[in-house]
Amino acid sequence: MREVFEIAAQDGAARIGELDVPRAGVTVETPTLMPVVNPNLITVDPARFPEFGAEMLITNSYIIKNDPDLNERALDEGLHEMLGFDGAIMTDSGSFQLAEYGEIDTDTEEILQFQRDIGSDIGTPVDIPTPPDSSREQAEEELATTQERLELAETVDVGDMLVNAPVQGSTYPDLRERAGEHAYGTSLDLFPVGAVVPLMNQYRYDDMTEAVLAAKRGLGRDAPVHLFGAGHPMMFALAAALGCDLFDSAAYAIYARDDRYLTVSGTKHLDSLHYFPCDCPVCAEHTPREVERMGDAAREELLAEHNLHVSFGELRRVKQAIKAGNLMELVEARAHAHPRTLDGYRALLDHADQLEASDPASKDAFRYTSADSARRPEVLRHHRRLARLDVAGDDVLLTEGDDNRRFDECWNVVAPFGPFPSALSTTYPLTAETPERMDAAGYEAAAEGIRRLADANPETQFTLAHHDWPATALDAVPERVETVDTSGGD
User: Record-annotated residues binding substrate (predicted)?
Assistant: First the structure.
């Protein structure tokens, strides 16, 4: 793998990065979104993509190769001139057509050479995108073929064109992890997680999350990761939190052809809108009825422009959240807009230990916004570190208040983190912004912190002074820890 990717900022597994694309002579900031261009059906002129914020696009070299007119133009003019786009261009190989139709009339060596010859900046070999829920035998067999083709791709003379190493494995996390390890061990450059479009089309964001995180476990932390088909803005925050750096969107154009209007919380049909809930130029200058009365081509183009505006607007919001260290709050807000994205977020939290490994130790204030917040990496890290903190006395009060009479030492208790020495009360994440009406999950997480502290200090007597904690949380406190309800209860 060439050193083409540098991480500039990180929040959990998400990162701001710089991807050097030598053939294009540009450095692209990630996360980035690549609009998909069908060379036979262009909705928005690619020359205009920089107006929306696009630094890269993706198109299909197999379509170009098999269309005599496009083939001749691409070889004669070069891909950038043909599409009128000065940024970086990635090309797919025909693997999508392979998945759709079962066979294609090209191979890895031929298509990579063609991608090189038409001036692609990032090429793709012909991998086999094994669909979700395939038999393990099929997944293993097709993964082996994909890996053979990645090794063949290493031998093709592509000049300074970067080459993708797709990570397959269907819905088998161990195969995805193995595929990531193999791909990372090649000399190829970018690492798309493939064959997840069917999962996203079926709103199986939890299974998508498992597939991506498994691939990430096999890849090195410096590997630039592309999530194929992640084109809807409602899941950009989740995709970034999974550690994906590149997304591609055909949705902006496909949805526009069907009069569908993208938002960060889902998709609306044009005829259902009384007002445009957006302040992009399209929505600021038109009403839904005005757009509806336009001719097909004009209406489609305006809706596609809106879809690009809202997509790149959300991408900028994701980047700002990564820089500020509060991406998880954005992920949670987006997740609660749809039950299936919430499934994806909860699957992400099932792997809080994987996120914690790359999460900065200090960042913006932790905000507790729902029971899911109790499972975030910051809470897990605090619990793990309790065993490293010194307990000075033999009789220690753990309290939500200030009463330390007759005790050798007094520690603070804040849900969802649990106990900590008062000297740490101004350090991250213990400066958390939490609701006055904490839910049971927050108190249960705090009780887990108390259990870990008690286990690490078996000779110390602990007393918990709590204010009306729920029974589920008190049941999680070790029996040897005395509890006192300061609200006046038992």
Answer: 127, 195
